[in-house]
Every structure is written in C-alpha cells, then in structure tokens.
Amino acid sequence: MTSENKFGLLRRMLRALGLSQQSADDVVNFIVDLLVGESKSPAGVTQSPEFPYQLRDNFLSPAELSFFEVLRNAVGNRAALCTKVSLGDIFFVKKDDPSRFRIYTNKIDRKHVDFLLCDSATMRPILGIELDDKSHQRPDRQERDAFVDQVFKAAGLPLLHIPVKRQYAVQELAEQLAPFLTAMPRPTPQAAKLDNDLQVVIPTKIAMPTKGVAPTKESPICPKCGGTMLLRTAKSGANAGGHFWGCSNYPTCRSMLPYSG
User: Fold this and answer.
1) Which residues face 81 on adjacent strands?
2) What's the domain range around 137?
3) 141 vs 259, more confident
4) Within a domain: 76
5) pTM of the full structure
6) Does residue 9 sit in the same domain as residue 106?
7) Contact 131, 68 (CB under 8 A)
8) Residue 46: inside a domain, yes or no?
9) In angstroms, rounded to a whole number, what is the distance separating the alpha carbons of residues 168 and 191?
10) 83-106, pLDDT tens digit by residue?
11) Average pLDDT of 251-260?
12) pLDDT reading at 251 higher than 80
C-alpha cells in the first residue's frame, strides 16, 4: 500500500472517530512531520540536509489576484494591505494553562486569512477579509470558516466575507470597508511610546526604591493574556520616573496596569 493510500485510510479512520476534515488533516500532517524528522541516513553515511522547496507560481490564485487589485484601489493609502497571513501571526493564546495553550495554538497554526488590513503607522490589524469561492460551500470548509469566525470574534477583530465575482466595483467595495477604516483603533500615547519609555524589568518579587519606598508587592496577572505583569519605569514623558505594571509578553501583549506603591 502506498504512503498516499495509507494516509488516506488514516484520514478516513480519524473521520470515523468524529474528527473534522481539518482536524484529521492536522493529525496526518503532524505524523508526516514526525516521520520526516525521524528519517535517518545509513550508518556511516553523511548526507546533506534536504531542502526540496520550489517557488510557487500561484501565490495568489487568479480570483485572489483579481480581487487584490480592486481591494488595493478601494483601500488606497488608508491602510496597509497584507495577503495570506497566518492566524498564528495575528492571534495568540493565553499561557495560564500550558495544556490549553498548545491545543489552541495548534488549532490556528495551519490556518490563514486571505487578506488583512492594518494601520499603516503601527501595522496593528484592523480587518480580516476572506474571499469565498465555491470551495467554501463544502461542509468541511464551512466548519473551518465557522471556527475562524469565532477566533476573530473572540479577539475582537472584524472579519468580512466577500463572495468571488467576475468583476468588482471599486466604489462598492470602498463603501463596505469605510466603517472599518474610519473607526480604526489608535494606540494611546502611553502605549505608542512604550518602546522608548521602558528601562527596567523586575522579576515577580520586586525591591525597587521609588520615592524612598521599597515596594515588595507580588506581580499581578495580565488580564488579557494571563502572563506575569512586570514592574516597569517610564524614562520620559509626563510620567517619567513613574512605575506601572507591563505585561511580560510585550510586545505580543501590550497590556498595562497602574502601579500604586
């Protein structure tokens, strides 16, 4: 039995156990990765690592490329336009539960969104766009789409589904995007200057003098990602010399809390 037939049988068995098509594919891909990683050369034979990679000629499908041109004209200079962005590059999972972290990270690891609009100044994601062709009518794709919709919803990032068409009207698309581009969240001045203002990172137990007082308060937990908050000191600005709690997962998570010593 060929490897392809074996994996096809494995996929059917996984589906019979109740796994979705996407989950079955993820399991098979994981097993393939393990098998490739464990393949060994004959004893005493030194082999160069294999890199069997070629450049794709179809990074964007004809339908995606056609829509991309219209989308670029509709957006103009109001946002940065990215294509085929991995969900793992957009979202992250709270680390308060290691087992849940790995499970839910794997759920988004092999998925992407077709187009992503970002704030041109900060590259903060504004809107995800899925271009839905006929493949999205399949039950497995609908299941995948429902999951991705929930991921975007949970993280508070809008996701717009646009059906594939032969032609798109730039003005019509611009009107669809307008509510998202005119309501772009802007970072607070404190968050925007965070890179320049941070100078000290203190472990969980702190003993740093501030105005003559050495606090010994235990670090709080980040309300956004579940990481440990670290005491930081502003170097400049109106709060220069002042302290605040900043998430240890910065810059992935920019959550901040006031510090009262």
Assistant:
1) 117
2) 62-181
3) 141
4) yes
5) 0.64
6) no
7) no
8) no
9) 38
10) 999 999 999 888 777 778 888 888
11) 80
12) no
How far apart (Å, rounded) are the C-alpha atoms in residues 47 and 84?
Answer: 34
For residue 10, CA distances in Å to 23, 102, 208 come to 12, 23, 58
Same domain, 81 and 15: no
Q: And the tokens for 254? A: 């920019």
pLDDT band (50, 70, 90) for residue 250: confident
Q: CB atoms < 10 A from the CB of 62, how many?
A: 8
Would 48 be classed as within a structural domain?
Answer: no
Structural domain count, the chain: 3
Same domain, 136 and 98: yes
Residue from 260, 212, 235, 139 nearest 245 by CA: 260
Same domain, 67 and 160: yes
User: How much is the pLDDT for 102?
Assistant: 82
Q: Which amino acid is at 194?
A: L
Q: Are residues 158 and 67 in the same domain?
A: yes
Residues 191, 177 within the same domain = no
